[in-house]
Design a protein that fits this description.
Keywords: Membrane, Transmembrane, Transmembrane helix
Order of helices and strands: HHHH
Radius of gyration: 17 Å
Largest sheet: none
Shape: elongated
Helix content: over 70%
Number of helices: 4
Number of domains: 1
Strand content: under 5%
Number of strands: 0
């Protein structure tokens, strides 16, 4: 189990760090530009965090796949890129839909008000939303490794 936790931490932790920074920046910038627009700030924080998170993971998946294919003397193609995107969609699809459209924006809207701190509320919302996000995401990741993360030449 320790090996699995290390694998998940290597995969998700750098993306999480980027996502936290982007979430706070997105929400903070929106609060600054649109005072009193709490819902807009919650959505901006959610989506800024998503772009950073999934951008990092896709970049890492592409880099790893290129390395494997290059070692086997094969090229990385658009089709291979499609496989990377599809694997990511399967890994996060169900968890992400519920997370981005309902859970995370709702928590980011209400928790800053409830705790009396915008940054504190956003961070708490992010942590709570991550719990409901990672359980299905990790299950999907483990299931997708056998079918969707095997590329030509491996």
């Amino acid at each position: 189990m320790k090996a699995k936790i290390r694998e998940w931490a290597r995969r998700y932790l750098p993306a999480e760090v980027l996502s936290v920074v982007a979430t706070l920046a997105g929400a903070g910038l929106t609060w600054h530009l649109f005072p009193g627009q709490e819902l807009r700030a919650a959505l901006a924080g959610t989506w800024a965090g998503n772009v950073a998170y999934f951008g990092w993971l896709l970049g890492q998946d592409v880099r790893q796949t290129r390395r494997h294919l290059r070692a086997a003397g094969r090229r990385y193609t658009r089709r291979t890129f499609g496989q990377n995107v599809r694997a990511l969609a399967v890994e996060f699809g169900p968890a992400e839909v519920l997370d981005s459209l309902l859970i995370r924006p709702a928590l980011m809207y209400w928790l800053p008000r409830l705790v009396g701190s915008r940054s504190g509320g956003i961070l708490l919302a992010k942590l709570l939303a991550d719990v409901t996000f990672y359980v299905p995401a990790i299950i999907s990741y483990e299931l997708s490794k056998k079918r969707l993360r095997r590329f030509e030449g491996e």
